[in-house]
Amino acid sequence: MSYLRNRFQKEANRMAQDYVASIPFDQRLYRQDVEGSIAHAKMLAKQGIITNSEAEAIIAGLNSICEEIEQGKFQFKSELEDIHMNIEARLFEKIGNVAGKLHTARSRNDQIALDLRLFVKEEILKTIDALEALQCSLVNLAETNKEVIMPGYTHLQQAQPVLVAHHLLAYFEMLQRDKKRFYNCLNCTDVLPLGSGALAGVPYPVDREFVAQELGFTKVSANSLDAVSDRDFIIEYEAAAALTMMHLSRLAEEIILWSSIEFGFIELGEAYTTGSSIMPQKKNPDVAELARGKTGRVYGNLMAILTTMKSLPLTYNRDMQEDKEGLFDTVDTLHSSLEIFAEMIKTIKVNAKRIRDVIKKDYILATDIADYLVKKGLPFREAHGIVAKLSEYAIKEGKSFHELSLREYKNFSPLFSEDVYGISFESSIAARDVIGGTSPQQVEAALQKSKGDSLLRSE
Ligand code: ARG
Predict the structure, then answer these.
(1) Ligand 1 atom with the shortest distance to the CA of 26
(2) Exposure b/e, 183-192, CB count within 10 A at least 16 = b
(3) Residue 269, CB half-sphere, CA atoms under 13 Å: how many?
């Protein structure tokens, strides 16, 4: 009987141990953990809290642990809960009791806050790089198809002619805003929490400014309670990532539509499509579809961390251990999506002829015909009414605007004369010569500016 109870007790212990352990996922923070501990040990020695030789032993031990981990020789143990305890336990094995001095003036609460901030700072820089690589691909595709005119859409209905380059540069602008958001996030992540201890600060003469400098932080947290319980920087990263994924999903959607037989505007490189197992004619745009799909997961991670943090009393609560998996997943999803898009877009072939065919019936010039009447003196609303009727007539007759005779035009307004035939896709886009418009000069200027703005890498 007592043997059985013992066994159950052991089972229960193991279950609880596995339940609270974060080591299966927080081992990803080993490098930041070691880096933070080295800076901390240096500071402790500088302040005379430990001796120089103790710090040296600790630092050498930490460096060799880091190597062990990188060579896959380190044995992570779930009974040691997390990355901090796993590394510390190994440090004891390596250098003996002096290892116990490393945790002076520190708590796992400020330690994990530090590790996460170091991690997020690094990832933000990688994110910005990946955004720029994608911008570079977009600009190159715009440049190669600078002359191609396509129908611009509203409500997914052909609306007015625009340059393909103008359309692509719209995405450049979205990514430009994304970059700004990540830079803002970098600024709010760039705060050293170490020195806050468990929650109230530490009773040792530590030098926080020194640690900040060692680790590349420009600011030191102002309130210890806030510092150990703040995960805003993770939420901000995930929010910025959600927005970027939203942008990618819109681009994905257009790639999916444009590569369909119905549109046929573009062709994607083989590597980014897969064939159907039963329908041999198909080339499915799986990569774009998956990016569109993964956007949902990234939104989910944002909702999860917001929900975890909601109503938590100050300061650290174990709930906060749940901040990591979603963050890692978002970082990985965002980076792989940005990277694959940058490559996929390099393979896009624009089918200019097909795009031209799609707008053969030139109804997208309706606004230009209304503007033509405005220039001849009609108020815009009136001109709009006339062209609405004219369009209805042309569509009913199965004729494009260019196929209508002057007599037919004049039935709708006496203001029409021979020069109405001068209205073309080219004249339409050339007329939109305002800052941010689709005229070739404006788009050329935008292209040049984009190249300067994004610090595009030369490949
Ligand atoms: N594994 C913990 C986390 O990720 C580290 C901090 C633990 N602190 C504590 N007081 N148990 O949040």
Answers:
(1) 4
(2) eebbebbbbb
(3) 12
At how many degrees (to 10) do helices 30-46 and 83-95 cross?
60
Catalytic: 155? yes
Site residues for ligand 1, CB cut-off 6 Å: 22, 26, 82, 108-109, 112, 316, 318, 320-321
Comma-separated ranges of CATH 1.10.40.30 domains in the chain: 359-442
- The conformation of residue 203, written as its DSSP 8-state character, comes to S
Using alpha carbons, list the distances in angstroms from residue 382 to 10, 373, 379, 402, 413: 85, 9, 6, 22, 11
Per CATH, domain 359-442 is 3.40.50.2300: no
CATH code of the domain occupying 114-153+161-202+222-357:
1.20.200.10
Tokens of 331: 């970082």
CA nearest ligand 1 atom 3, residue: 321
Write the DSSP string, 346-410: HT-EE-HHHHHHHT-S-GGGHHHHHHHHHHTT--HHHHHHHHHHHHHHHHHHT--GGGS-HHHHH
247 catalytic per annotation: no
Rounded to the nearest 5°, which phi and psi values hold at 182? -70, -35
Place of tokens 């610090």: 455
Q: What is the pLDDT of residue 2?
A: 66
Give the pTM. 0.94
Q: Where in the chain is the domain with CATH 1.20.200.10?
A: 114-153+161-202+222-357
Are 261 and 293 a contacting pair, CB within 8 Å?
no
Q: Are 233 and 124 in contact (CB under 8 A)?
A: no
The residue-averaged pLDDT of 199-211 equals 98
Give me ligand 1 centre to Cα 336, in Å. 29
The predicted structure's pLDDT at residue 236: 98
Give the span between the Cα atoms of 186 and 330, in whole angstroms.
Answer: 16
* CATH architecture for residues 2-104: Orthogonal Bundle (1.10)
Distance from the CA of 32 to the center of ligand 1, in angstroms? 15
pLDDT in tens, 178-198: 999 999 999 999 999 999 999
| Residue spans in the chain of domains classed CATH 1.10.275.10 | 2-104
